[in-house]
Amino acid sequence: MEVWLNAPKNLGHEGIDALYSNETNAELSSKDGLLYRDGTLIGGHVHIDSEHAQFEARSLAGSVEWILLTFEDWSMIPIENVIAATDGTPTKVAAQITQPIEAQGAGFALDLGVDALLCSEDCLEAALIVKSLRLEQTVVSNSTKSSTTDDFNISLMTVTDVQEGHSGDRVCIDLLSMMDEGEGILVGATSNAFVLIHGETIASKYVPTRPFRVNAGSVDAYTLLANGSTKYLSELKSGDEIFISGSDGRARSATIGRMKIESRPFILLRIMDENTNEGHVFIQQAETVRLVKENGEACSVTSLSVGDRIFGCSSTSTRHVGQSISAPSEER
After folding, report:
1. Which residues contact 241 (CB under 8 A, 6 or more apart)?
2. pLDDT at 142
3. SS3 assignment, position 318
C-alpha cells in the first residue's frame, strides 16, 4: 500500500510514495476528473458526493490504472463498493482520509484495503502505521505460503489405535472469523504428526453450531501458527495468528479471539503416515469433536476405528521453541 501526501513537494518526509496537489503539478495532480503522474494520465479522480458519483467511480474499474476517491462527507461504503468493483481487475484504488481514525478503515476495507491513502499532514502518522501493518500482513501471508504449505502438506494418516485417554485440560479455540465445512486446525502431540481437527460447523441435535470454534485437544499438543512455527495449545492467546487448513489443501490464517480451557475426558488416538511415522493426539471424548475421513466427510472422534484413514500431515523435522530444526529428536 502507498501513502500519498497532499502537501508541497519539498517537505521530504520518509515513507511517502507520492505527493498530490490540486494546485501544483507535483508528482500527482488532478484536473477535470482525471489523475496525472508527472503529467501523464494514469486514471480518474472522482469526488464522492452522491450515488451517481459512486456509480461513476465503479464504472472506471478495469479501464484505468488508478481511481482516486475524495469525499464530500467521508464514508466507508463507497470505498468498499469501489474496491469490490475493482477486485480481479488491474485497477488500483486510492482514497482520501480526513481524520487519523479513517486510515485503518480504508486500509483494511473488505479485508483487502485500498492501494493508496491520500492524506494531509495531520493524518500522515496514522497512514504510515497502516502501511506498516499492511506490509506485515503481506509478510505473514507469504511466510504462510512458503513455510507452512511446503512443510505441512495435507495427507492421509491411518488410525492405529483408539483408547481411553483419561481426563485432562482441554483447549477450545475461538476465532475472529468463521470456518467452512472441511476446515479446521492441525493438532498433534508430537512435532512430526498432526491430525486435522474440524471446526464446529456441523449441526447437532444437542448443541448449536459454533463455526468460529475448534475443540482442539489437550494443553500439551502443538498447533501451527500462520508463520509456520508451532505453539503448545496452552501457550496460545487472543491475538495470535494461527494456521487454518482445509482437507482439500487450502490454507489461510485466522486470529484467535478467545481461549477456553476446561477439564474434560479424552480419547487417545494413535496415527501413522504412509512412511510409517507414528504420532498421537489426545482429543476430547465428545460427539461434536470431528476429524475428516478419506471420503471428505467429517467424523466424530467417538466413531473412529482402527484402520480408518483421516486427514492430517506429517513432518520429518523436529522443533525447538516452535521453530523447525534439523537436529535429531525422538518423541513418543
Report:
1. 140, 225, 226, 227, 253, 254, 255, 256
2. 53
3. strand
Q: What local confidence, expressed as pLDDT, does residue 326 receive? A: 44
Task: Render pLDDT for 180-216 as a digit per residue (tens, 0 to 9).
Answer: 989 999 998 887 789 999 999 998 877 889 999 999 9
Separation between Cα atoms, residue 51 and residue 232, nearest integer Å: 51
**Cα–Cα dist 3/163, whole Å:** 58
Residue 163: in which H helix or E strand, if any? strand 155-175
Neighbouring residues of 167: CB distance < 8 A, sequence distance ≥ 6: 263, 264, 265, 266
> pTM of the predicted model, to two decimals?
0.59
Q: What residues does 4 pair with on adjacent strands?
A: 18, 118
109 secondary structure, DSSP code? G
Cα-based angle 81, 84, 87 (whole degrees, multiple of 5): 150
Nearest to 239 by CA among 319, 186, 174: 174
Average per-residue pLDDT for the chain: 85
Amino acid at 325: I
Identity (one letter) of the amino acid at 88? G
Distance CA 313, CA 296 (A): 15
- Alpha-carbon torsion, ordered 102, 108, 111, 113, to 10 deg: 110
Domains and CATH numbers, the chain: 2-146 (no CATH), 152-325 (2.170.16)
Write out the three cell numbers for 156. Answer: 492421509
pLDDT at 329: 53
Which pLDDT tens digit goes with each residue over 47-87? 999 999 999 999 999 999 999 999 999 999 999 999 988 98
Residue 140, C-alpha cell as written in the block: 505473514
Q: Between the CA atoms of 315, 321, 327 and 329, what dihedral angle is there, to the nearest 10 degrees?
A: -70
C-beta of residue 33 within 8 angstroms of C-beta of residue 60: no
Pairing of strands 40-48, 66-71: parallel
